[in-house]
Amino acid sequence: MEGDEVEANKWSSQKDCFDNIDNFIPSEEFEWVKLRIYKHKKDSTFHYLTCRYDGLGYLYMLSDNMHVESIYDHGEFWTDKNSVYYQYDISDGIRIFKLDSVDRASFETFGESIYAKDKYHIFDSRNGIIEEADVESFELASNPDSSSFVYYGKDNFNYFFWDEIVTSDVK
Fold first, then answer.
1. Which of 45, 51, 94, 147 has the highest count of CB atoms within 10 angstroms of its CB?
2. 4: pLDDT confidence band, cut at 50, 70 and 90?
3. Sequence spans of domains, the chain
């Protein structure tokens, strides 16, 4: 396990851990930088605070290439001065990965959703480029369950759930 595991940062479940993430107590070897990012005092590596499946809050090391000073959290996507990243939820918590094949200058998100775009592509935060999506006409679609976070998109040709083309109950 990478990062900092302190027994005081153990909750009953992953959900409980994320609900209490503001109560995380890092070891003295780490200092808070911004968002949920901490810097290791000895080796100057940056670590992201997340929660494991069993409720353990811990810090995992971020990529050396990430420019932490300019990082901005857009929800499912992150940007720094050079690159775009997406967050992906796994049983060991949230992971941050670099999004390849993106035009950083034209990149923008679709608000409270899993979707983003640049001048060439539509992206989702799990699969990257959605090959079948039309950049010019893509927009968010209503969720069938009326939740505020949007997992559905549409263009002039298709409806999408993540990167899958769907045909049911989407408006």
1. 51
2. low
3. 5-97, 101-166
Joined tokens for residue 132:
């079948």
pLDDT at 64 over 90: no
Label residues 18-51 b or e (16+ Cβ within 10 Å = b): beeeeebebeeebeeeeebbbbbeeeebbbbbbb
> Could you read off the pLDDT of 21-46 as tens digits, one per residue?
999 999 899 999 999 999 999 999 99
Element of type H or E holding 16: helix 14-19
The answer to whether the beta carbons of residues 163 and 156 sit under 8 Å apart is no
Burial grade of 138 (CB within 10 A; 0-12, 13-18, 19 or more): buried
Q: What is the pTM of this model?
A: 0.85
